[in-house]
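Probable translation initiation factor IF-2 (Thermococcus pacificus), 345 aa
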Amino acid sequence: MTKKIRQPIIAVLGHVDHGKTTLLDRIRRTKVAAKEAGGITQHIGATEVPIETVRTLAGPLIKLWKGEIKLPGLLFIDTPGHEAFTSLRARGGSLADLAVLIVDINEGFQPQTIESIEILRKNRTPFIVAANKIDRIKGWKVEEDEPFLVNIKKQDPRAQQELETKLWELIGKFYEMGFQANRFDRVQNFTRELAIVPISAKYGIGVPELLVLIAGLSQKYLEEQLKIEVEGPARGTILEVREELGLGTTIDVIVYDGTLRKDDTIVVGGKDKAIVTKIRALLKPKPLDEIRDPRFRFDQVDEVVAAAGIKIAAPGLEEALAGSPVIAARSEEEIEKAKEEILSQ
Ligand code: GTP
Ligand code: MG
Ligand code: NA
């Protein structure tokens, strides 16, 4: 039997208020953005989007991707765009197999747009550009959830021209930074050219094409890098350390490799030390739920396979440090190796 490709991690990056959380809300049918204090994202979020949801939202467009989509789903990571959160953006960017860079097409490149590109370049993370808020172009006709290539045909020539002008401005900015970019349907080679998908996150326009490209390209990159599901012990990164009523101190973790089991010992990075502890509970958010702000209760699970967002309850996590590694270990030898690795960082 051929090994399954692991679920890809898709980070959403971009300048503050350019629409990252709104895009995920549109995909999840949630309203996380509206509930954030001051409308500002202050943490890294994680959401699993099952492939059936991608298929439903993409509709017949999924056939545009030549070749079968074999992924079980997509693990999206939402990052903050506010300038204060450079380290959270860097963490999200470094975990990602593929990123979506969101640019408000009416504002164009802004400081954290450039910073996000630098993070992605440094990590050699492939990315797709979502040129957001096209519905704000004067006279734009909104049709909810419509593919961009259908929606664009309904626009007046003047609105179409306005979009073209703004797209060319973006393409010029990317060129200045050393990238060859183009509207996605004019891209000949996705490995060499950056694809720009015009979208309205608020109304879902262009989201079908964006999802097809995210699924297709992430699968292609994972296959090329032979990132398949592995049986080995898990490796992850702590997003947040949180007190939970009835659970004590927990850690929200992105597992990016291997399998995490309920009876695993984990070695976790803390302040100047490595914490060795036994897992008490593995808590998984429901699909399409946000780990920071779940609508439903978590499911207790016995095992998770990368990539996944998971809350771990275990004794002694009070001194765990956000951004540190989590390594599962199944023998004394593995525990020692993990401790060494964490302390040497
Ligand atoms: P941070 O996480 O704080 O960096 O912001 P963000 O990138 O997650 O942006 P957010 O989703 O919070 O959206 C910012 C504002 O832009 C909100 O008022 C959204 O309703 C609005 N917005 C987002 N996408 C669109 C869009 O496609 N069209 C319009 N008209 N407004 C949008
Ligand atoms: Mg946000
Ligand atoms: Na915001």
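The chain has nine helices and 17 strands. Residues 16-17, 39-41 surround sodium ion (ligand 3) (CB under 6 Å). ok done for today
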